[in-house]
Give the backbone structure.
Amino acid sequence: MEKDKTVQTENKMGVMPINRLLISMSLPMMISMLVQALYNIVDSIFVSRINEYALRAVSLAFPIQSLMIAVSVGTAVGINAFLSRTLGEREYEKANTIAVNGIFIELVSYVVFALVGIFVSRPFFASQTAIAEVREYGTVYLTICCTAGVGIFMQTAFERLLQSTGKTMYAMVTQGTGAIINLIMDPILIFGAFGIPAMGVAGAAAATVLGQMAAAVLAIVFNLKFNREIHLSFRGFKPDGGLIANIYKVGIPSIVMQAIGSVMTYGMNLILEAFGAAQTVFGIYFKLQSFIFMPIFGLNNGMVPIIAYNFGAGSRERVVKTMKSSIMYAVCIMLAGLAVMELFPAQLIGLFDAEAASELLVIGIPALRTICLSFCFAGFCIVVGSVFQALGNGVYSMIVSIARQLCVLLPVAWLFSLSGSVNLIWWAFPIAELVSLGMSTFFLLRIHKNIISHIGEGKR
């Protein structure tokens, strides 16, 4: 009886002042995602010490790795939004069932990617490069990341269960732990130490999956010990098609939206293949930009359950205030990132073992300075897209993402590549982000009129 009384106490997402709540929910996630971005960069820095082909191989693996993250995180976004709304409506038994079904579909997703790692890795690299050394490095790296990738799916699922009940501090600890283990194991496994032989690129992949597995185990332990609002039990479990469909109602648009990024990256790699080290520069950019974008994704992870909870609880004022504060913080972060990339492009590229006057610097400096102009608009667009998801309209985010990356960015980049100037190709990014800004604003006005302005009317 005492436990039930604790469960039904008003969740802090419905009563705490918005700015304090948003910071308390988001800051742990922003810090943990900064740590994740750091280990992604350090991972590539270590690999670049092997040789430039190893760095290029890891960069070319990014579309499949990004697709894994898209499926795991997109599914978890659906779980998070559905679960937070259900908790806001105080349907606690239903919330437990949602959580268990969510874990089940994350496991199924892992099995699919394990098969991708076994059967798709080699032809995937063969389609992107004719350099045999890059193909071999990449096949080994990607096969390990996929077949041993259960950790990323379980880590994501259980962290989102913690986030949906406002326990973001625990999620920060799990992500931070995984990142630190990756950072420690990277040099040991790549170059060899303490009796462990040098594994090269395979060591980088092994360090990655070990960090993910450790974070997953910790997230499971935290849920079982501290997440009293959700009770997990697989006894007599049968998949519930209706609940899974509701998870994917928000999750599939999110998956598609992030998976489109994988398609875009793959397409850009094909376009850039004719421009020497441009593929490597593009991979370096993605590692660097994650250090700027990851905090915004952490902000969104804190924002989504707040909006979803207060949407379910019928509090329009709290939904609107959360949205406005999130946009303000995101824009400030992106402007800071813009300043860093404009002022220090050579120093950033130099982190990846780029010698002075090398091809990486010649191509990379104008690339960073041009692409980062898109940051002026990206913060607003990212937050608004997550607002759509939190309100159960993730399809709007999907439409904007498809338009930006497939209908504008890739065609414009291909057209510019016909000029023979790699520097012109990079302008496709700010052009595409302008289109995203216009569409995001249009859909925000529409969702405000049809949904936000009516929140709470049925509860009066």
Residues 1-8 have pLDDT under 50 and may be disordered.
